[in-house]
Design brief:
single chain; 440 residues; alpha/beta; FAD/NAD(P)-binding domain; five-stranded parallel β-sheet; 33% helix; 22% strand; binds flavin-adenine dinucleotide; FAD/NAD(P)-binding domain-containing protein; FAD/NAD-binding_dom; FAD; NDH-2; FAD/NAD-bd_sf
Amino acid sequence: MANESTGGPPRIVVVGSGFAGFECARRLRRSLRDTGARIIMVSPNDYMLYTPLLPEVAGGILDARFVTIALSDALPGVELVRGAVDSIDLDNRTVHVTDCEAGAEVLSWDRLVFTPGSVTRLFDIPGLLDHGRGLKTPAEALYFRDQLLTQLEMASRDTDPRESRARRTFVVVGASYAGTELIAQLRALADSAAARQGLDPTAVRFVLLDAADKVMPEVGEKLGAQVLDVLRSRGIEVRLETTLTELTENSVTLSDGTVLPTHTVAWVTGVTANPLVDTLGLPTEKGRLKVAADLSVEGHPGVFAGGDAAAVPDPRHQGSITPPTAQHAVRQGRTLARNVAASLGVGEAKPYAHRDMGLVVDLGPGFAVANPLGIPLSGLPAKVVTRLYHLFAMPSPVNRWAVGLAYLTDLLFPRPLVSIGLATETQAQFAVSQGIGARN
Ligand SMILES: Cc1cc2nc3c(=O)[nH]c(=O)nc-3n(C[C@H](O)[C@H](O)[C@H](O)COP(=O)(O)OP(=O)(O)OC[C@H]3O[C@@H](n4cnc5c(N)ncnc54)[C@H](O)[C@@H]3O)c2cc1C
């Protein structure tokens, strides 16, 4: 096994340290242990982010560090290059990397694993870039926690009733699992704050909007209806078939013409493939890089892709591609490792296959919905399954321990009401936190 151009050990460059890239590097490290192959991971982060728990970071149950898995601990032997890939030369087999101080580096590869994930899907709505915030990064999750606590404190001292109402109104756009989990966690945090400040919790308004006619279509009709009941019983207004037409500093306009005074808008309407896909000039489907069933990129030997950035044929639904979920990304990471190793002469390649394990959705105090292996669960049993699932799925014992202790703390004590103020409004803007939507 040798580097095809220099004759040295082969170089595998993995772009991105998310679910797919992380799992791929972890497995390659083992399967190529005795071969001398170099595995080089390029990512702007020194961690793998466990995104399913971001709503609990926003809700003040978990610390942001608990949901970030340190690459240096979890991937010994993998070379980490901290920077963003900004272009890939497929003919000369190089990637161009820019680090956080704008320094440039060019890395050559024999195998490329392309897993840069996705970014929040933005729409051309006036004010969205300035006044909306997404939920894809620790900075965004911390922003929501801090913003909620700060706005409630300021509202309690505000003498202008309209302004006070605006501070106490929180709007979340997107009622699939991420948006629904976020609003449930923020509601619980607001209820805790209200109880300790002697505030009437009904004075804090939460509005969940979605252009579709149901919440969480991913969990099916029956569980979706239960979720709707629970959200409404907690005083969350759910407005379906409704979206935003404008955002300003202190209000939003809904598609039915209603104007709601608010200073806080979460935009959680779905994702689109990382913009790096467009720079490749290769065929795409739904904006994601087309790959074959074995996750290789046709016409470019040695190039593989998976996760949210790739359009992976779904073997269970002929003609469809797999949805952008962590579950698929992790398993595609395994297939990527297997097939990259096979391309270097270790083991045999296999097409991507999966079995649907179901979904778990935590909806704040005492409630969750889950359909493990297709069995619909709600309430406390689902809550237990959801928390155990996350503890099991988290790929690091230290993080598992920290999250487990935080869950125990949550059972015994009220949520801590602390806004440390590290994630500012600016740091949580799409352009800064996700590098998207910047104006030229
Ligand atoms: C709030 C939230 C909750 C979710 N909950 C669930 C859930 O409960 N269950 C579920 O199955 N899925 C869930 N998902 C979806 C899941 O997070 C994604 O499907 C999954 O992260 C995709 O994995 P990935 O490896 O493709 O991309 P990501 O995990 O997004 O990782 C992409 C990596 O690429 C890096 N990167 C980006 N650009 C570059 C570049 N130019 N150069 C180098 N590196 C780059 C990023 O920093 C990151 O490390 C949730 C998502 C969110 C946002």
